[in-house]
Amino acid sequence: MTKPPLTLYLAAPRGFCAGVDRAIKIVEMALEKWGAPVYVRHEIVHNKYVVDGLRDKGAVFVEELEDCPDDRPVIFSAHGVPKSVPAAAAKREMIYVDATCPLVSKVHIEAARHHENGLQMIMIGHEGHPETIGTMGQLPEGEVLLVETVADVATVEVRDPERLAFVTQTTLSVDDTIDIVEALKARFPKIVGPHKEDICYATTNRQEAVKAMAPKCDAMLVVGAPNSSNSKRLVEVGSKAGCGYSQLVQRAPDIDWRSLDGIASVGITAGASAPEELINEVIDAFRDRYEVTVEMVETAVENVEFKVPRVLRVPA
């Protein structure tokens, strides 16, 4: 039986960003340097396939520092941690390696600088996300107020409307964040912000590729984890940019084929913590069912690389 024809539009850039790449490398190099087990506080990145692969190599994933023994190295995830966590590790004289993405660390430094200048911070982010917890945990309690939506801006209670600054989570929707920033500036005209919102280059680039791809597609699949903020934002961006069916899938077996009945084109992208193997797995699943033509939709070229911490670059 002949397979129906299908055009697959493949977003570029997609998948791993430099911060995720660095975080995974940190765990692998720590295992090489100190042997197993190496402890990791929280998922190093939000992807089950990646976490399971590192677990197989000897990484032990825990929720809190208390779950780690004193005599084994511990790694802090790419999302960043509150200041209290490395302080507790130092107090216990543990070997620890901070895998926080340098672009998240930049937001931490920004927040600390504004605090030193006597400004109260407003953070645009998602409540309960590890990155939000980590950034808010850089300053004393009450010094960072969280807003998630434009509606939150109207009700947030600040100490002094004349002395405020804002930062943002790095994995938000660019368009939604612009609306929240506008609302903050309208209510607090003197609020200080970064020269450019803190949303990272990789999040922005992946969203731009989806916007370019979405109008061409009958459906769009985002390969990523359900707890990955940047992956969920890609699904939303795809829907808003004109793609009728936009869905998050972790792996090829998660694809809902019945929803794709009768389609002629599918866009495929991946969140910043999804490896290329999983994207290839999805493409292969389509090849099994369709006569596939692949077209690349490239909106940017990424060549960013972040160094791993010095402790991993020197011999044990």
Provide the spatial order of strands within the biggest beta sheet: 10-9-11-1-12
CATH superfamily of the largest domain: 4-hydroxy-3-methylbut-2-enyl diphosphate reductase, catalytic domain
Give the number of domains: 3
CATH fold topology of the largest domain: Cobalt-precorrin-4 Transmethylase, domain 1
Output the radius of gyration. Answer: 21 Å
Got a strand count? 12
**Strand content of the residues, in percent?**
15-25%
Q: On the 0-100 scale, what is the average pLDDT?
A: 96
Structure, explained:
The protein is of the alpha/beta class and 316 residues long. It folds into 3 domains: 5-16 and 201-298, 3-Layer(aba) Sandwich (Cobalt-precorrin-4 Transmethylase, domain 1), CATH 3.40.1010.20; 18-101, Rossmann fold (3-Layer(aba) Sandwich); 103-187, Cobalt-precorrin-4 Transmethylase, domain 1 (3-Layer(aba) Sandwich), CATH 3.40.1010. Helices cover 38% and strands 19% of the residues. The protein has 11 helices and 12 strands. It has helices at 18-34, 48-57, 84-91, 102-116, 130-136, 150-155, 174-187, 201-213, 229-240, 276-289, 310-313; strands spanning 5-12, 38-41, 59-62, 74-76, 96-98, 120-124, 144-147, 164-168, 219-223, 245-249, 265-270, 291-298. The protein has a 5-stranded parallel sheet with strand order 10-9-11-1-12, with helices on both faces. It has a 4-stranded parallel sheet with strand order 3-2-4-5, sandwiched between helices. It has a 3-stranded parallel sheet with strand order 7-6-8, sandwiched between helices. β4, α3 (84-91) and β5 (96-98) form a beta-alpha-beta unit. α8 runs parallel beside α9. The longest helix has 17 residues, at 18-34. The radius of gyration is 21 Å and the shape is flat.
